[in-house]
Design brief:
Length: 137
């Protein structure tokens, strides 16, 4: 569904959108691209979700351990818990933005014409737009 969502969003920005809604988009994409068209970009989506959760858990845990070691006889305060979560969330955005850029580009309407696969997408973005393109948006 992530691929369909991205295609619908991209389509809605066009002067003459093709899709009339979710069901129409599903049917049209299936007819034109087959089953694989609905799952284009699924690998970067899996990587994004996995690295997102990994980053959050690791950063949260490390900050929690550090703060707990400062006063081992007490539980973390609400502010300290907030600080752990806030920092972990921010770190996950920094780590995952490049993956999200690749995911979104692989799921765009013209992805099949532009990229062979996710690695090709990474190479082209880097070569044509530079490393900062992975952090735009």
């Amino acid at each position: 569904m992530e691929t369909i969502k991205v295609k619908l969003i991209h389509d809605s920005t066009l002067p003459n959108p093709r899709y009339k809604g979710l069901v129409h988009a599903l049917v049209t994409i299936y007819k034109e691209q087959g089953f694989s068209g609905m799952y284009r970009g699924v690998f970067p989506t899996i990587v994004k979700q996995g690295s997102n959760q990994m980053t959050r858990f690791v950063v949260y845990g490390e900050i929690e351990n550090f703060l707990t070691s400062m006063h081992p006889d007490k539980s973390l305060s609400r502010f300290e818990t907030f600080l752990c979560g806030f920092t972990a969330g921010g770190a996950s955005v920094l780590v995952n933005t490049p993956v999200d850029v690749v995911k979104t580009r692989m799921q765009s309407l013209n992805a099949k014409q532009k990229y062979k696969n996710s690695i090709d997408c990474i190479k082209k973005v880097y070569m044509e737009e530079g490393v900062l393109a992975f952090y735009r948006g």
